[in-house]
Design a protein that fits this description.
Blueprint (H helix, E strand, L loop, with lengths): L10 H6 L2 E3 L8 H10 L4 E2 L3 E2 H5 L3 H5 L10 E6 L3 H11 L6 E6 L4 H5 L10 H12 L6 E10 L2 E2 L4 H7 L2 E10 L10 H10 L4 E4 L5 H11 L3 E4 L8 H8 L9 H18 L2 H15 L6 H8 L5 H22 L1
Parallel strand pairs: 1-10, 2-4, 3-4, 4-5, 5-6, 6-8, 8-9, 9-10
Antiparallel strand pairs: 6-7
Helix pairs in contact: 2-12, 5-7, 12-13, 12-15, 14-15
Flavin mononucleotide binds next to loops.
């Protein structure tokens, strides 16, 4: 736990301890979030949920609110652009046992941005402040905002934005160190994250490209952030949280049998809430994250995309374990 010893105490820290699983639509479902909590993530966030969908009681949006008590502390992430939707959504989600509410002001996807939501809010500060106010005045939970460093290099977020968000009730800000124009590519701009940290009266959680414990610690060091949010680096590698939580990155890497038992656990948890006719198509996506980076992975992935019963899964995992053992022997 050495890395967090220096961090200041704050409302948000009380909830998160600073090692957060990033929200990733289509990937960070309840089962994966539970796995990450077990490995050492100190807080998780739901996939983004449309505030408007909650307002009009859409089944699809409500399904995204499912979580297990083992995931706590958990934040629910809302996206949208109309304060009225956020008011109703904040009221509704506040009754469901979540620990904080996060507002999405970072999603770069065209459909989201074209409706004025996600990172489009970074270009419309009156709308962003109205949304933050709508949430904070309709909940007693801590409110957090997830932003990017700006719309484009020509339109970075202003130095005053963190204080504006804090004034409207934000307890913490997560910053993905890219512009909207970067989408998900290119190097994370640590100096821009550091600028936001420097100007923020509330804790900042740094995010972007923490693919290894080393990368994550570099991001933390370079930015002086109060915590880290890990996204893609955790997919197929939830052990990254164990490395960060224990400060023992090498000891934290899993033995082949642990990889297999983790995937089984994830599958069993998924089957508790996903109907069997959808289970395997969703499982395949998760499975592919674990099958990479060793000899024989490409061929096994070709088979993993066809898994459609537990017998298939068992065969794939038996072979995965053999390949991982062989890889370890080659590297030792
Ligand atoms: C497939 C995918 C889905 C994502 N969905 C969300 C989302 O629902 N809400 C959000 O705020 N960010 C979302 N993001 C962005 C991540 O939370 C994170 O900010 C970004 O991936 C950078 O961090 P990383 O390099 O550690 O992955 C998503 C990213 C990916 C790759």
């Amino acid at each position: 736990m050495y890395m967090f010893a220096f961090m200041e105490n704050s409302t948000f820290r009380k909830y998160t301890h600073g090692l957060v699983l990033a929200p990733m639509a289509g990937s960070t479902d309840s089962a994966f979030r539970r796995i990450c909590r077990r490995m050492g993530a100190t807080a998780v966030v739901t996939e983004m949920v449309a505030a408007a969908g909650l307002s009009r009681r859409s089944v699809k949006s409500h399904k995204l609110l499912r979580f297990h008590s083992e995931e706590k502390p958990i934040g629910v992430q809302l996206f949208g652009n109309r304060p009225g939707d956020f008011e109703r959504a904040a009221e509704l989600v506040s009754k469901l046992g979540f620990d904080f509410i996060d507002i999405n002001a970072g999603c770069p996807v065209k459909k989201v941005v074209n409706s004025g939501s996600g990172s489009a809010l970074l270009k419309n500060i009156p709308a962003l402040t109205a949304v933050v106010r709508a949430v904070s005045s309709n909940t007693s939970l801590p409110v957090t905002v997830k932003i990017r460093i700006g719309w484009s290099p020509e339109e970075p977020v202003s130095d005053s934005l963190p204080a504006i968000l804090a004034d409207e009730g934000a307890s913490a800000i997560a910053v993905h160190g890219r512009y909207r124009s970067d989408m998900f590519a290119g190097e994370v701009r640590k100096e821009e994250v550091e600028r936001i940290v420097r100007n923020s009266p509330v804790p900042v959680i740094a995010n972007g490209d923490s693919r290894s414990v080393r990368n994550a610690l570099d991001l933390l060091d370079a930015t002086g952030a109060a915590g880290l949010m890990i996204g893609r680096g955790s997919l197929g590698n939830p052990w990254i949280f164990r490395g960060l939580a224990t400060g023992e990155p090498l000891d934290a890497s899993p033995l082949p049998r642990e990889v297999i038992s983790t995937i089984w656990q994830q599958y069993e948890m998924m089957s508790e809430y996903i109907p069997v006719d959808h289970l395997y198509s969703i499982l395949r996506g998760q499975l592919l994250h674990y099958i990479r980076g060793f000899r024989g992975a490409a061929e096994l992935r070709g088979r993993a995309v066809r898994v459609d019963c537990s017998g298939d899964l068992e065969d794939i995992l038996t072979e995965l374990e053999e390949l991982l053992i062989a890889e370890r022997q080659r590297n030792s």
